[in-house]
Specification:
The complex is a heterodimer of chains A (about 500) and B (about 200).
Chain A lengths: L5 H49 L2 H5 L3 H9 L7 E8 L4 E5 L16 E4 L3 E10 L2 E11 L1 H53 L13 H122 L5 E4 H11 L1 H7 L2 E6 L3 E4 L1 H17 L8 E9 L2 E7 L32 H11 L3 E7 L3 E9 L19 E4 L1
Helix pairs in contact in A: 1-4, 5-9, 6-8, 8-9
Chain B lengths: L5 H19 L5 H22 E2 L12 E6 L7 H6 L3 E2 L2 E8 L10 E4 L7 H7 L6 E4 L12 E5 L5 E5 L1 H6 L3 E2 L1 H5 L1 E3 L2 H12 L1
Parallel strand pairs in B: 2-4, 2-5, 5-6, 6-7, 8-10
Antiparallel strand pairs in B: 1-9, 3-4, 7-8
Classes of the chains: A alpha+beta (about 500), B alpha/beta (about 200).
């Protein structure tokens, strides 16, 4: 349904009300007038008939046609009475008026006494009595065409008056509806402006005639006041919040700066300590070797053992200090990034580890490694060396280490897998694996500093990468490293997922 | 105009035929014609009681009968008795009494004086002076020279008509309805004046 305008609805309602009232009034008045006129006609005819009948007893009794004619001629003053006659005591038609009227206009015998309306006529049979004795009957017929004519005139007058009144009602309703619609439309206009300009300081200030509209306007303005207040409060709160956020930001920045400074100082301290430790350790190892080489006989078997121990501890200490230095370096220095070919780096690492590989008789398959990543070449080298070393290291004694590495694309990243046939990692240690100095085995079982995987993690993270492991105890581990891909890479074609079912998955 | 139902037509035709028979048959059934005339006259006589108001002293009591007396030869036979049978006017049952002499006339409201009394009519009327009795007769000159109150006569159209001497009725305290006067011939005032004048002598 098409929504109609307030104005149209109001005008329509008022107009229809007026027209309905007019119609009802007109119809009622017409019906009332008609029936009232009929009744008055009937009363008039009845009294006329009574009067004539009361004076006609003698002429009927004494059978005087002439007088009868005279009496009936009195009806000349009654133009509507177009036929009248007497019936004698025996019910015979006695005298007719007017005499020239066709006999068919008079009933042959008197009908029942009283008035009767038919479509065209009002008729009456009036008994003629004298001293209680009935001596005859008077019949008078009145033509109703006059009343119909009169009714027609009446109806036309009513219709004309109604048309005039309806036009006036339309005019008045058009005038009065403005008193309602003008304020409402003004209110709507204010609301529209507000919703367009979002300015809640606007107020409705039109003149209103009706009390309800005044209330509406006041309520509307009050609502606007509230909204305005809330708006202001909201803006204040927002400003405050922004202030807080800015303050917080500043404080965080400040704190971060101070933390970074502290960390940097700490790294600097670590670095200088580790660096300064290198010389004495090297001296310690060198002197221990000199002691063994030059004074071996003099030390005796016991002294030789001690010196050997000093040398081993020193060498281990040197390794530790080296790893520490590497870790600290990774953390404190900028890592310039470049597109690095993974296959080349992997081959370089294999070359670096050639001696160890040959010693262990290990089988290393790097055929699945391809593609280019955005990385710091030295750090990537460090990562690969650590992962491969680890893969070779944790193999049960007497077993040939088999290592396989390959790459697969992961969205914008390239994932490098390194799979070994080592002892694997128990699930309870998975979350500790990449921490500093976390060793899962005794130094005697598998030598190492406990920094390797921490280095891997640190290096990967500084290059916006991720590191993780899937492992199944006894059956080996699969480490992975994800780094941003430098160029689109063709699918390597080989996925190891169908060969090894991982039990634990972990991402660090 | 639609024709009336057949039985009505037949009835009307029959009525016309009977009436024609009565009118066209000359001299025949003179007694039949007479009895028809007196049948009507009996009704008219009795109906006079409806159009005349008597003074209260005319009746011994409110329930007393209204007596129609006949003095002299009775032309009605049983017709009048039939006409008044069971009739009650203004609470008075109507009775018919026949008198052979004036002396017998006592509580009587209408007195019909037969033609046999033509010679004594004047005396009878004078004798009834002071008594509220409506006198009726067929004797010619009854309402004029004789001073009677009402007289039946037959006019040129062969209709039975009334002549009324209003003054005579009034002088006895009788009032005659204007309705009746409308259908009757009222005696001229000039004559009545003379009558009154004559009476006063």
């Amino acid at each position: 349904m098409k929504p109609s305008s307030l104005k149209g609805t109001l005008v329509g309602a008022m107009f229809m009300t007026a027209v309905t009232a007019l119609l009802l009034t007109g119809a009622t008045m017409t019906v009332y007038e008609f029936s009232a006129y009929k009744q008055s006609l009937a009363r008039h005819l009845a009294s006329l008939a009574q009067t004539i009948a009361a004076n006609s007893s003698a002429l009927l009794v004494y059978d005087d046609q002439k007088v009868a004619q005279e009496v009936l001629s009195a009806l000349k003053s009654e133009p509507a009475a177009d036929a009248a006659c007497f019936y004698d005591q025996a019910g015979r038609l006695y005298s007719a008026y007017p005499t020239n009227l066709a006999a068919g206009n008079f009933p042959v015998f008197p009908g029942p006494d009283g008035l009767r309306f038919s479509r065209l006529y009002l008729t009456i049979f009036q008994p003629v009595e004298e001293k209680g004795a009935r001596v005859g009957t008077l019949f008078i017929r009145e033509d109703l065409r006059g009343i119909y004519r009169r009714l027609g005139i009446y109806v036309s007058v009513v219709v004309v008056v109604m048309a005039g009144s309806a036009a006036l009602a339309l005019l008045l309703s058009t005038f009065f509806q403005q008193r309602i619609t003008r304020p409402v439309l003004a209110l709507a206009e204010v609301a529209r402006q507000i919703s367009q300009k979002k300015d809640f300081s606007v107020r409705a200030d039109m003149g209103v005639s009706a009390e309800e509209l005044r209330l509406l306007k006041e309520a509307f303005n009050e609502m606007l006041d509230r909204i305005h207040q809330r708006d202001v409060a909201l803006q204040q709160a927002q400003r405050q919040l922004q202030q807080y956020a800015a303050d917080l930001e500043a404080r965080v920045t400040e704190r971060t700066q101070s933390l970074e400074e502290t960390t940097r100082q700490l790294y600097d301290f670590c670095y200088s300590v580790a660096h300064d430790l290198k010389a004495p350790i090297r001296a310690q190892v060198a002197y221990a070797r000199l002691l063994l080489d030059d004074c071996g006989e003099r030390l005796g078997p016991e002294g030789t053992t001690y010196a050997e121990r000093i040398q081993a501890a020193g060498e281990r200490q040197a390794l530790l200090v080296n790893d520490l230095l590497a870790h600290v370096s990774l953390s404190r220095s900028d890592l310039p990034m470049a597109a690095v070919d993974l296959a080349e780096t992997a081959e370089n690492v294999r070359a670096d580890l050639r001696l160890e590989l040959e010693r262990q008789g290990a089988a290393v398959d790097l055929s699945g490694v391809r593609g280019t990543v955005m990385a710091n070449p030295a750090s990537l080298h460090l990562i690969l060396i650590n992962l491969l070393s680890n893969a070779l290291k944790f193999v049960p004694r007497g077993q040939q280490p088999r290592v396989r590495a390959w790459t697969e694309p992961r969205g914008e990243f390239l994932r490098l897998w390194v799979e070994d046939n080592g002892v694997g990692i128990s699930s309870q240690y998975m979350d500790k694996l990449f921490g500093m100095f976390q060793r899962l085995h005794t130094r005697e079982e598998y030598p190492g500093t406990g920094i390797g995987l921490a280095l891997v993690k640190r290096a990967t993270e500084r290059m916006q990468g991720r590191v993780g492991v899937e492992s199944q105890e006894v059956q080996g581990s699969r480490f992975w490293v994800e780094l941003p891909a430098a160029a689109p890479l063709q699918n390597s074609g080989t996925t190891p997922d169908d060969r090894v079912e991982p039990i634990h998955k972990m991402s660090v | 105009m639609p024709l009336p139902p057949t039985h009505l037509l037949i009835r009307r035709l029959t009525f016309c035929a009977v009436w024609l028979l009565g009118v066209l048959t000359p001299g025949s059934e003179a007694s039949g014609q007479t009895s028809r005339e007196y049948e009507i006259k009996a009704v008219l006589l009795f109906n006079l009681a409806r159009f005349v108001e008597w003074p209260t002293n005319a009746f011994p009591s409110p329930q007393a009968p209204l007596v129609i007396g006949i003095l002299g030869r009775d032309p009605f036979g049983p017709l009048l008795d039939e006409a008044v049978a069971g009739e009650v006017i203004n609470g008075h049952p109507v009775l018919v009494q026949r008198y052979s002499s004036l002396a017998q006339v006592k509580d009587c409201q209408i007195l019909f004086i037969g033609v046999t009394e033509s010679g004594r009519a004047r005396d009878v009327i004078s004798a009834l002076k002071g008594r509220p009795i409506l006198t009726v007769s067929e004797i010619s000159g009854f309402t004029q020279q004789l001073g009677g109150m009402t007289r039946f006569y037959v006019n040129e159209q062969n209709k039975i008509r009334l002549r009324i001497n209003l003054q005579a009725a009034k002088s006895e305290g009788l009032s005659i309805s204007s309705k009746l006067l409308q259908v009757a011939e009222v005696e001229k005032a000039s004559y009545l004046w003379g009558q009154v004048h004559g009476d006063s002598q």
